[in-house]
Amino acid sequence: MPFSGGTPAIQAVVAGHTPLSFQAIPPATELIKDGKLRALAVTSSKRAAALPDVPTLDELGIKGQEAETMQGVLAPAGTPKRSSTCSSARSPRSRAARREGEDIGARLRASGITPAEFGAYIKAEIAKWRKVIEDGGIPRI
User: Phi and psi at residue 51, in whole multiples of 5°?
Assistant: First the structure.
């Protein structure tokens, strides 16, 4: 069943209308900690710091299924580099920012990614999931 976002999907699982959901960790973390949701596995390559007792799919023997929710700050292609920098946002290099993210299940990349590297990551993810969709015969909605 398609949902218009993560929150409605989580609500459907908590209410017992949907048996399970593949979900980003941050919006589900508190419900998991409160015992309202049961986390079966994480799809990342490493366990989530916020949910250290939840195994990865790889640990459960389900190989090659790594998937992460990516987030980034994007601007139109012609945006000058200086104006496309968010100076007011906390840097993931900040220990406090990393700790806050980890508390809700997010894993922030502290350094080493440039706009070009992020673009390459996005392109690789598109190719990866296009293949999954095509190989699985999944129709577009």
Answer: -135, 65
Best CATH choice for the domain 6-110 from the list 3.40.190.10, 3.90.1150.10, 3.40.50.720, 3.50.50.60: 3.40.190.10
pLDDT tens track for 59-99: 999 988 888 777 777 788 888 876 444 444 445 556 666 66
Number of H helices, E strands in the chain: 4, 0
Q: Could you tell me the two tokens for 108?
A: 């922030």
Domain ranges of the chain: 6-110
What is the per-residue pLDDT for 106?
61
3-class SS of residue 21: coil
What does the pLDDT look like over 35-51, one tens digit per residue?
999 999 999 889 988 89
The CA-CA-CA angle for residues 87, 88, 90, to 5°, reads 95
Closest CA to 44 of 102, 100, 110, 90: 102
